[in-house]
Design goal:
alpha+beta, 4 helices, about 160 residues, Nucleoside Triphosphate Pyrophosphohydrolase
Amino acid sequence: MVREISAGGVVVRNADGAWWMAAIELPEPSAATTEARSTRGRPKGKSVLCLPKGLVDPGEKALEAALREVREETGITAAPITKLADIKYVYVRSWGDGEKVFKIVSFYLLKYESGRIDNISDEMRIEVACAKWVKLEDAPKLLAYRGEKQMAKQAMEYLLAHAEV
């Protein structure tokens, strides 16, 4: 079984007395995006909202990868607050060899620093239809994947327990 190590971020900002979180919407599946991401179980025409994340490059630390992926996929920069957790799961590639993949994704709670959401390169539009702010309290209902819903819940719990953030 192939192994993949990825990292991502729950980027938060406080605006108008509420916590907001950066999320990305995946593009509609096509031949190009099928190779970039698994679209298994995705209803046709239904948008998929998820957290920015991606593979850790050789020689890169997980936190560095999370910060890079956030910048590439959302257009914003963020600073680390804390590590939330590692999510582990198995999926079957929907492209190429159809091999099973054991994946570990390290997620970090990050605080917005600068940039404009959805200010991303044209090349990144293969992976990201748009990036947007969603209310953190709504994120567990809006995010498509179980593990990412849990990361949003953990981020809320952390922020409630750490008012100084």
